[in-house]
């Protein structure tokens, strides 16, 4: 059986995109044709006193019938006049934006926010402090799909108040332009000039005023944007460099850390410090991907890469064995290397944390978009993929033990979905329940470091029976009191 076919993934994504666009167009056409029998004026012709409320209800429904904002702006202009239509359209855009925002906000709190804190803390700080300006900017760019950016705002866990207020004022110019265009007494030139005036008074001047106040406090958008740029630039340039330690002891088995999807080596910083403080030698490699840093690389390709890197380190330093500690997607890489590429000859223990061995439903978010044309790994991690079937169709050989740390609180690999189930050698797979840990907490919790240390320092026979329900939630310093990963490029330690 062929493990993976990129060409089939491309064909499936293209076919899906065509079907989505065709379906969206059909839904929008059927809905508005049924609602507006003759012309747009007929949509609200018999509304009476309830007409504004009907219009606001249509505004909330609009994104779910795949209709652009300008469409309801035109309806509002025809039904309520220029100023009434503008205000109602802007208010309706708040309700529709919050409806889409709410759908992804819960997901953002569980995944996007922890990811940003672990990988790009300065970027996270920029987003949290400047969210209202980012919403303003997004609403003012007509080429950005209104509902898609609302979806992104929810995933990034923007503040609800910022999204609502900035959406209202940011939607005014577009709402005013299209409401005025349907006024027969107005020309395109006068409509455009009035729109620019509204933009300047309602949007540009307040934005400049708030930016001026922020810069006096040292929290201006430009200052924080430079910090974000420096952080990402640091990740891209420095993360590719492996800083070699002065010496390794060939008598101590090193630990190879592998991080997960769309993460960088920074994500393993706290865990590396914890293991180093407990006397372990730690190795980590840049696994490549987006911008050469954020791990979106093919799993099979990455497994071959670490096979080369580990063998090179064994030859250079005289190691007899290595141990693998891997988070999320990194666990698939580590097991493919150990069980499919003969890595078990050099590895006694593979410890996985929150690895989605049954696949992740979140991969569909990429496979339903053009991202599925670029990232091969999302097809490999799709539930029921050929890659996953092939990964489970193995035997765990004698001398190699797999420890699967899993949790009922893990939103990516919940409960038993985080346990590897090979075809043969199941007795050499140990399930380690950590049910008080969420997906990204595996990267920095002190009790996780203690558990990994116990596994690596013993035969591990007893670790699988413990759940650690009462373990301390504190992370290793210098993480802050909320358990966040250290902030800034200075948090990166030297790597081997």
Automatic annotation (TrEMBL):
<feature type="domain" description="VTT">
    <location>
        <begin position="69"/>
        <end position="180"/>
    </location>
</feature>
<dbReference type="Pfam" id="PF09335">
    <property type="entry name" value="VTT_dom"/>
</dbReference>
<dbReference type="Pfam" id="PF00561">
    <property type="entry name" value="Abhydrolase_1"/>
</dbReference>
<feature type="domain" description="AB hydrolase-1">
    <location>
        <begin position="254"/>
        <end position="355"/>
    </location>
</feature>
<keyword id="KW-1133">Transmembrane helix</keyword>
<feature type="transmembrane region" description="Helical">
    <location>
        <begin position="194"/>
        <end position="213"/>
    </location>
</feature>
<keyword id="KW-1003">Cell membrane</keyword>
<keyword id="KW-0812">Transmembrane</keyword>
<dbReference type="InterPro" id="IPR032816">
    <property type="entry name" value="VTT_dom"/>
</dbReference>
<feature type="transmembrane region" description="Helical">
    <location>
        <begin position="134"/>
        <end position="156"/>
    </location>
</feature>
<feature type="transmembrane region" description="Helical">
    <location>
        <begin position="163"/>
        <end position="182"/>
    </location>
</feature>
<dbReference type="InterPro" id="IPR029058">
    <property type="entry name" value="AB_hydrolase_fold"/>
</dbReference>
<protein>
    <recommendedName>
        <fullName>TVP38/TMEM64 family membrane protein</fullName>
    </recommendedName>
</protein>
<dbReference type="InterPro" id="IPR000073">
    <property type="entry name" value="AB_hydrolase_1"/>
</dbReference>
<dbReference type="InterPro" id="IPR015414">
    <property type="entry name" value="TMEM64"/>
</dbReference>
<feature type="compositionally biased region" description="Polar residues">
    <location>
        <begin position="459"/>
        <end position="470"/>
    </location>
</feature>
<feature type="region of interest" description="Disordered">
    <location>
        <begin position="459"/>
        <end position="496"/>
    </location>
</feature>
<feature type="transmembrane region" description="Helical">
    <location>
        <begin position="12"/>
        <end position="33"/>
    </location>
</feature>
<comment type="similarity">
    <text>Belongs to the TVP38/TMEM64 family.</text>
</comment>
<feature type="transmembrane region" description="Helical">
    <location>
        <begin position="87"/>
        <end position="108"/>
    </location>
</feature>
<keyword id="KW-0472">Membrane</keyword>
<dbReference type="GO" id="GO:0005886">
    <property type="term" value="C:plasma membrane"/>
</dbReference>
<feature type="transmembrane region" description="Helical">
    <location>
        <begin position="53"/>
        <end position="75"/>
    </location>
</feature>
């Amino acid at each position: 059986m062929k493990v993976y076919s990129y060409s089939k993934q491309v064909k499936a994504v293209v076919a899906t995109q065509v079907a989505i666009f065709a379906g969206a167009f059909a839904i929008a056409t059927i809905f508005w044709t049924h609602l507006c029998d003759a012309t747009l004026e007929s949509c609200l012709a018999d509304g009476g006193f309830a007409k504004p409320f009907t219009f606001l209800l249509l505004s909330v429904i609009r994104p779910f019938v795949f209709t652009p904002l300008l469409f309801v702006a035109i309806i509002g202009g025809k039904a309520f006049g220029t100023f009434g239509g503008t205000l109602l359209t802007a208010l309706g855009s708040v309700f529709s934006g919050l409806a889409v925002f709410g759908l992804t906000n819960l997901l953002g709190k569980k995944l996007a926010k922890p990811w940003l804190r672990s990988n790009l803390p300065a970027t996270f700080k920029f987003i949290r402090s400047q969210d209202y300006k980012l919403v303003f900017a997004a609403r003012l760019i007509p080429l950005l799909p209104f509902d898609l950016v609302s979806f992104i705002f929810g995933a990034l866990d923007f503040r609800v108040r910022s999204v609502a207020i900035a959406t209202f004022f940011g939607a005014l110019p577009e709402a005013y332009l299209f409401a005025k265009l349907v006024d027969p007494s107005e020309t395109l030139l006068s409509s455009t000039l009035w729109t620019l005036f509204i933009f300047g008074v309602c949007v540009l001047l307040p934005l400049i005023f708030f930016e001026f106040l922020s810069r006096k406090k040292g929290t201006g958008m430009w200052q924080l944007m430079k910090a974000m740029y420096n952080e990402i630039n640091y990740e891209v340039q420095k993360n590719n460099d492996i800083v070699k330690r002065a010496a390794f002891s060939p008598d101590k088995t090193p630990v190879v850390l592998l991080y997960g999807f769309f993460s960088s080596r920074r994500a393993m910083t706290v865990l590396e410090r914890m293991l180093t403080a407990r006397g372990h030698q730690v190795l980590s490699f840049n696994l490549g991907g987006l911008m050469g840093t954020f791990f979106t690389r093919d799993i099979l390709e990455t497994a071959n890469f670490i096979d080369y890197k580990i063998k090179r380190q064994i030859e250079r330093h005289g190691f007899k064995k290595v141990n693998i500690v891997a988070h999320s997607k990194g666990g698939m890489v580590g097991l493919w290397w150990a069980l499919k590429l003969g890595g078990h000859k050099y590895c006694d223990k593979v410890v996985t944390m929150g690895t989605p061995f049954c696949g992740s439903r979140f991969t569909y978010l990429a496979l339903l978009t053009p991202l599925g044309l670029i990232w091969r790994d999302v097809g490999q991690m799709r539930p029921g993929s050929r890659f996953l079937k092939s990964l489970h169709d193995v035997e765990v050989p004698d001398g190699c033990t797999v420890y699967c740390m899993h949790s009922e609180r893990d939103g990516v690999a919940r409960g038993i979905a985080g346990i590897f189930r090979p075809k043969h050698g199941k007795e050499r797979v140990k399930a380690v329940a950590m049910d008080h840990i969420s997906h990204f907490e595996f990267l920095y919790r002190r009790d996780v470091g203690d558990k990994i240390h116990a596994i690596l320092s013993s035969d591990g026979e007893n670790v699988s029976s413990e759940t650690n329900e009462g373990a301390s939630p504190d992370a290793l310093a210098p993480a802050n009191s909320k358990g966040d990963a250290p902030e800034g490029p200075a948090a990166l330690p030297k790597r081997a």
